[in-house]
Amino acid sequence: MFCNHSRAFSYIAQVWCIVCFGLAGGCSSSGGTFTLFPTGDYLTKDAKFVRSAVPRGVPAPRELQKMVLPSYMVQPGDQLLVEPINLDSPLRFPADQTVLPDGTIDLGRFGRLIVAGKTIEEIEADVAAAIQGFEPNADAINVRLVNPQSAVYYVLGEVNSPGSFPVIGRETVLDGILAAGGLSDRASPCNIILSRPTPPDGCRIVIPICYRQITQLGDTTTNFQIMPGDRIYVATRTLCESLLPCRRSCQLCGGLQCPCPRSSAMSPAMTAYNQASPADAMEAAEPPVSYEAASDRLMPETSSHAATGSR
Q1: Maximum alpha-carbon separation in the chain
Q2: pTM for the whole thing?
C-alpha cells in the first residue's frame, strides 16, 4: 500500500514539474510545442500595451463603410504614360516610363522632369509647361499611371506567404490575410494586429483584429480598410493557447452577437464609399464626408451639388 502511494506521489510530482516547465517556457513556445528556447513571431510588450489602449469605437474606414483614398502621390518605381490627347499630334514621347530613384522621368527632347511626390494633375501641368518652351502651340497632354508600385501594405508573421502587396483601394484586413495565403497552422487568431506607420517621435497606432468574428460572424467591426503602409501582423500561437484555447473576444468585438431578422438574409450587404481629406486618411481619425464629393471634383460640368462632412 505504501509503495502504491509512493508511486502515485512520484507520478504527480513528475506531472507537476512538466506543467511548471510548460507554464514557464511553454507559454512562449513555438507553434504550441514545448521548448526551452522558444522561437516564433510574438507580440512585444509595447505592442500589447498600445493595443490595449485602443478605444471601443475606432473611427476608421472598414468593410461596408469604406472611403476613397486621397490623390495618388507618384514615387520612384511607379510607371507613367505621357501622351498627347490628340492622337494625330506630331508630339512623340518615350514609351511607358518608370520613375527613376532620383524621382525623374525622361521626356526625350523636352528634357527630364521631377515627378516624385506629385499628383497626376500636377505632373500634367509640369509636362505641359516643359513642352510650351519648345512647342508654344502644342496639344494638351494626358498623363496616366499605368503601373502603381509604391503604394503597398505588408502582411507579416504566421501567414503562409508573407510579403508586401499593392494597394488597389478596396482591400480590408481579411483581403490582406487571404492575399498572404491565409493563417498558418501556428497562427494565433487572438493575436492579430493592424499597425499604421507614424513619425519617429509620434504616437503609435496598433489595432487588435478579431479574426474569428470577421470570418465566422461577418462582424465588420475590426475588418478595417487597408491604407498604404499598413502592417498586418499575425503572432505565433503559444503552448498555453494550445492547452487552453483562446476563447475571449477581442475588446473591439465584445458584447452579445444578435441574429438579424430572416428577411435580412435575402438582402446583400452594400458597401458605402466616403471621401475624406489626406490628413484624415493618414490618421484614420475622423468620419469621412460623402462619396459624392469625389465624383463632383472629377466631373464638375455635370455635378450640381457637393457634400461636406462634419466631425
Answers
A1: 110
A2: 0.73
